[in-house]
Amino acid sequence: MLKADLLLGGVRIDGCALRGEYKQEIHRVFEWDDKWHAEERYPSEFRLADGSILEIRKDSQSPYLITVEDKSLCLKKNDTVISEIEYVRAPSFYNKSTRDGTPMWRVAEFSAAQSKVGASYGPHCILYDGNEQCKFCNMVPARAAYKQMIDYPTPQQHGEAIAAAYAEGAKKLCLTGGILSDRMEFGLCARIGNAIREYSGKDRIPGHVNVAAPVELKEIDRMYDAGFESICMSLEVWEKNLFAGICPGKARLVGREKWLDALEYAVRVFGSGKVLSAFVAGLESQESLLEGVEYLASKDVLPVPIPWIPCPGSKLEGHRTPSTAWHLSLGDKIHELWKRYGFDAEITRTGRKYL
Length: 355
Ligand code: SF4
Prior knowledge:
Elements: H1 2-9, E1 12-13, E2 45-48, E3 53-55, E4 64-69, E5 72-77, E6 80-87, E7 108-111, E8 116-120, H2 139-146, H3 155-167, E9 172-176, H4 185-200, E10 205-210, H5 218-225, E11 228-232, H6 240-246, H7 248-253, H8 256-270, E12 275-281, H9 286-298, E13 302-307, H10 324-340, H11 345-348
Parallel strand pairs: 1-4, 8-9, 9-10, 10-11, 11-12, 12-13
Antiparallel strand pairs: 2-3, 2-6, 4-5, 5-6, 7-8
Helix pairs in contact: 3-4, 4-5, 9-10
The structure holds iron/sulfur cluster.
The site of iron/sulfur cluster has 10 residues, from loops.
């Protein structure tokens, strides 16, 4: 409940609580906070007294506050202290550079809550050029606002930084980005995958490459051949008319039927449970979303609903996500479906997926 509340409703941070060492928030893809804050840097995660790690998403309307009480850092709700906390510190690779002198934190981001390293192959998505971006997305304005990550890191920079993150305990990778002209992201990700294998010494790369479904199915084989253990191609919305309305660019460029074909094809290439598809939970009814979750699960695709946070700079900025109770009840039903279809609910329940 606390995790769900903090994710959906966010938290405020007192100025006096910005002290000591902490891992800074890095805007690798999106901005999830309620407001842009290009000039200010905040901590990205904290640990409760019971050891659990929570992500920090700032919201100026939140009843939760990170502050200092009796000289200790703590989390309060309204005026009540919930727990003493400590910020998660940066991993040591954040202080290292690649051979060409690029700081590794500008290439790879570490999430302690998810034991995950995240990287982004680029800051752009061509859907923004035609005003056809997915309506919940703020990737292009977020990357332009923060300029923390290198725009297009080379495969070598990716390989070195991600190998360093694996060496420091990252268990999986999420390599993501938008749609590039002529679908160049597939060639780019193939080169990145090969570099990760070279620098990490791993034959298969733990984690996934996250791309829009290709029209040419051979691109899926290319991702497998580059060493990625799994692939994520996010349909985002199940109901077909809503999909066209919320994701007009994906609907025009690929289309729902081809997207579903690509997911099924990918299962034949990567294997059962190695193909993921995210949904933005809160944009459609539970009935419709659960129909999509069950459909994909029945095809051995792992459906991963992620709670919708209306982001600044997205077309849905200022809207509201459903209540915490709505998301929690959806989460219970999703876990039932995961169990019924043999997916490991505990693994999938990390981070934002699903509460
Ligand atoms: S495909 Fe959609 S969600 Fe992905 S970056 Fe482009 S606009 Fe954003």
